[in-house]
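Input chain follows. Return structure tokens only.
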Amino acid sequence: MQNRKLLFICSLFISFCINAKPYKDSIEVDAVSISISADDNKIIFLENVSLKTGDLILESDSAIYDELNKTITLEGLPSHIRSLNASKPFNGSASKIIFFNNSKVELIGSAVMNYDNINISSSSIVFNPENGKMSSNK
């Protein structure tokens, strides 16, 4: 019961922070453990992290929402991202995924992306899930 209360509080906190933009859609995060670091303005999600926003699902071992930078950093062995949009299907994985907003995601460390039947591997892939544009450098 206490985990549900904490999840509700974290969801409200993230919703208020996200409404300051740059996120277009609401974000739903599920994890086994959630903690708030008020001094660092961060929310830490641990174990079986699942992040859903719009047409995206991201999964990892851990994630950190940084309120100052308005980013969510997911780390895992590996972390995964996939699209639920049937007209723009893609999936990818990397050691670290930084979710900036609905139009910018960066995969870092053994990054692999499959989009439009094209497989791309690089140490870093910057990807726009809205239009499918990607690059392997910032």
